[in-house]
Amino acid sequence: xxxxxxxxxxxxxxxxxxxxxxxxxxxxxxxxxxxxxxxxxxxxxxxxxxxxxxxxxxxxxxxxxxxxxxxxxxxxxxxxxxxxxxxxxxxxxxxxxxxxxxxxxxxxxxxxxxxxxxxxxxxxxxxxxxxxxxxxxxxxxxxxxxxxxxxxxxxxxxxxxxxxxxxxxxxxxxxxxxxxxxxxxxxxxxxxxxxxxxxxxxxxxxxxxxxxxxxxxxxxxxxxxxxxxxxxxxxxxxxxxxxxxxxxxxxxxxxxxxxxxxxxxxxxxxxxxxxxxxxxxxxxxxxxxxxxxxxxxxxxxxxxxxxxxxxxxxxxxxxxxxxxxxxxxxxxxxxxxxxxxxxxxxx
Length: 347
Ligand SMILES: NC(=O)c1ccc[n+]([C@@H]2O[C@H](COP(=O)([O-])OP(=O)(O)OC[C@H]3O[C@@H](n4cnc5c(N)ncnc54)[C@H](OP(=O)(O)O)[C@@H]3O)[C@@H](O)[C@H]2O)c1
Known about the structure:
Rossmann fold; 13 strands; binds NADP nicotinamide-adenine-dinucleotide phosphate
């Protein structure tokens, strides 16, 4: 068995990694660490993780984490890079935070600030690229992987096939996405209280300032082989988990709607986790909950010459914890799908 340590185990992303690791046939849970909650029982934070309930959270130090074969960092951005730097090179380190995702230091400075850490192989195996390859090719055997952000996973997989096929204009992309509140992490904040969120929706990070904007642009640029700009607006939805991203782009010239849909169906025909739904069915977040899946549907609006793609994911599963274990499978040369659920818990 391969041991997997989780830093940030008291948080939402760390808890999801542990939930999935418990069901993974090749992994056994090693150290579980936290910050302010170090010294407390894991079961206090994640009562659902019954088999690990009596584990005591340790301090998050490289020495404690280095005792495992795989380390998943589920920490606030800025916290993972210094820890990762101190881990031995042979340990597989998978970072759920943003520290190693962006290749452009200027984008890091503009959207995050502080020191730009070296980019790592980006953990979105299904991402189609302009040269016809997939991102998974650079993940096999990797020892460092940057797990994508949750919105970028949904938005990038929604539009990348159109860019890889040269069908979309690079400067006319609009993404509006709703996320459940777990996307904001476990921090206590008035706007995340049930009284504020239940029965209400609101946008945030409006006007091109959300931190996931440059990551979506980076991915779509890789797919297009040319720089792509994106207008991205996130919204907060009254649900604990799930993302529904509605993504539109303008096609370069008028196309047949059926042909357009085929581009997406063919791009993901062999992908075990990405499902282009039967024509007429639209994604529901509930169908992806707890599963490492993306549900997509594509339509063409000939009046505006726009393709409209709706994508649903569970932000904690395919949006982070499941993606992390999918990358661990690739890094360890295990079957990519090993131990990962594909059936959601709807309704
Ligand atoms: N939530 C999502 O849907 C999602 C999706 C994709 C990616 N991510 C990324 O995953 C990471 C974790 O997010 P989250 O939602 O799980 O956040 P969270 O619920 O707030 O959990 C944060 C975790 O990090 C620990 N921590 C906080 N500051 C630390 C520090 N300075 N050093 C070491 N540990 C520290 C916390 O420990 P204590 O409890 O002891 O304070 C907690 O275990 C973030 O980078 C986030 O962007 C999250």
